[in-house]
Amino acid sequence: MKIKLLPSTFDERGCASPEQRLSCFVIDDRVTIDAGSIAIGLSDAQRQTVRDVIITHPHMDHIATLPIFVDDLFALLDEPVRIHATEEVCGMIERDIFNGTVYPPFQKFSNDRTRVMEFVPFRTGEEFRVAHLRVTAVAVEHIVPTVGMVFTDGETSIAFSSDTSATEEFWHLVNRQPRVDALLIEASFPNSLSQLAAVSGHLTPEALRQELGKLSHTGLEVLAVHLKPSFREQLIRELADLGVPRLSAMEAGREYSW
């Protein structure tokens, strides 16, 4: 399985910069988790193959360029762009984004061949299919309805926390898996801002360490994501100071495979 955190910002030379301001992870060039940078980070080839988007929650950094992605593809689609989210989050995105004011209601439109976009609700705790993946999502602790998940292609299994503070059901889901090859877990704020992290539904490196104490699997790669750009270097140092084996900050634009 291949996973890439799509770049969301670029330097003065037009090269991708390491800061993660928008969240979008592309899996095997077919599926994304979230859509913050989907319209600006996908390659031309990936734009032809990505038709399934899993949305963990409706915060802007996770959905920012989704409308532009659908808009760009409007006339080219032979099948709809499928938005997978809980019923509640589907409703929020339809009400607040694809509402005819902020952006056109693409869920109501067709081109000459297909509907342009459709919502595909899933239920937490129940396995569902997205392209070639089997996915199970559970609620995590954030300030809006949010899910973490485990997904597998039948050979490799990845756990993804999404945005969360200290949580429990996610770890029950992860620990029930026969194997987990990698864990993507957030670390948004430095330890000195632990109070801000808690009230905004996020983790610090120290809180991440405590969460990893709930994990029963061993030997897997742990990638920290959602590092706030203003604190990125400090967060990388604090993550390294934890001394957790195989823990590192995920690099935007780098393809990881397991």
Task: Kindly describe this structure.
This protein has one domain (about 1-255): Ribonuclease Z/Hydroxyacylglutathione hydrolase-like (Metallo-beta-lactamase, Chain A, 4-Layer Sandwich). It contains nine helices and 14 strands. It has helices at about 40, 45-50, 60-65, 65-75, 85-95, 170-175, 195-200, 205-210, 230-240; strands at about 1-5, 25, 30-35, 50-55, 80-85, 115-120, 130, 135-140, 145-150, 155-160, 180-185, 220-225, 245-250, 255. The longest helix is centred in the middle third of the chain and has 10 residues, at about 85-95. The mean pLDDT is about 95.
**Count of DSSP H/I helices:** 9
Radius of gyration, taken over Cα atoms and rounded to an integer in Å? 18 Å
Question: What percentage of the residues does DSSP assign to strands (E)?
Answer: 15-25%
Mean pLDDT: 97
State the main characteristics.
single chain, 258 residues, alpha/beta, Metallo-beta-lactamase, Chain A
A few lines on this structure:
The chain is of the alpha/beta class. Helix content is 25%, strand content 24%. Strands 6-5-4-3-2-1-14 form a 7-stranded mixed sheet.
List the helices and strands and how they pair.
Blueprint (H helix, E strand, L loop, with lengths): L1 E4 L19 E3 L3 E3 L4 H4 L2 H6 L2 E3 L5 H4 L2 H8 L7 E6 H10 L20 E6 L5 E3 L2 E7 L7 E6 L4 E4 L8 H8 L5 E5 L7 H7 L4 H8 L8 E5 L6 H10 L5 E3 L5 E3 L1
Parallel strand pairs: 3-4, 4-5, 5-6, 10-11, 11-12, 12-13
Antiparallel strand pairs: 1-2, 1-14, 2-3, 7-8, 8-9, 9-10
